[in-house]
Amino acid sequence: MAPPPARTAAFDAIAPTYDASRGGPARAGIFAEQLAPLLDPAEPVLDIGVGTGIVAAELTALGHRVYGVDLSPGMLAHARDRLGARVAVGDACRLPIRTGSATQAVSTWLLHAGPDPRAVFGEAARVLRPGGRYLVIPARGIRPADDIGQVVTELEDRLDPSGTRQDGPDFLAPLAAAHGLSYEGAASERPTTFHVSPEEMAAALAGGHLFTGAWQVTETDLPLVEEACARLRALPDPELRRVREMADFVMVFRREG
After folding, report:
1. Structural domain boundaries, residue 23
2. Cα–Cα separations (whole angstroms), residue 248 to 90, 126, 139, 183
3. pLDDT in tens, 211-231
4. Of 17, 42, 110, 229, which one's alpha carbon is 20 to 30 angstroms from that of 131?
C-alpha cells in the first residue's frame, strides 16, 4: 500500500528545513536522552516515523542500534546520511515489519502529524513481541499555561474539532488499549524554559505555522488564525517577551500478552 500522496508531499517539501525548524541536534539530543534510559541497549530499536533520522542518530551515539521507517522519501534522504541502510520507506499505519519481530519501538512527534493513531497503535502492537514497549514523545507535551498559551491552545482546538491532532495520554491511552497496548504512564519529563512575546507568536501564526510540528495553516483556517493574532496583539505589553515554561515527556505503552 502506497503512502498517502498529500502527506508524503508535505513532508518532502519541508525536509530541507525540518531539523533547523525543530531545534536541530540540540533538541534531538534531549529527546534521545529522554528515551535512552527506557531502552534496552542490547536490543534493536524501531523508530516509527524516523523522519530525517536526527533523533535516531543521537540514540545511535548513545549506543543503541536504531532502524527507521518513514513515509517521506525526502525526509529519509537525510536519515540515510545519518543511519545508512537501516532505514526504509513505509507508512506508520502499515509497517513493512514482520509480526512479533520487535522488542522496542519509539516515535517522536509523530501522532499529531496526520497518521491515524488507531492504525499506528494497531501496527505497533502487531510488530512488538509480548512485553515489548512503544515509547512516544508527544508534540504537545505539557504546554505553557500563560496568556499566550491560552490563545494558541484554543486556536489549535478550534482548528481541530475532531481531535485528530491530539497526542496526549488522555486521548491516546484508550486507543492504544483497544489494540492490546497498556499505558504505563509518563516518564523522563524534561522541563524547558524559553522566551516569546505575544507579537512574535502572532507573527509566527500569520506566517502559517502552528506550534505543533508540520501543521500548516490553510486558506480556510485564516479567519480563525487572524482572530487569534488579534487576541495576541491585544494582550497587555504585546512586545514584552514572556518567560514560558513547558515540558516534554515520554509516554510508555507495553504490549500485553
Report:
1. 5-144+162-191+246-255
2. 26, 27, 8, 17
3. 544 456 678 888 999 999 999
4. 110
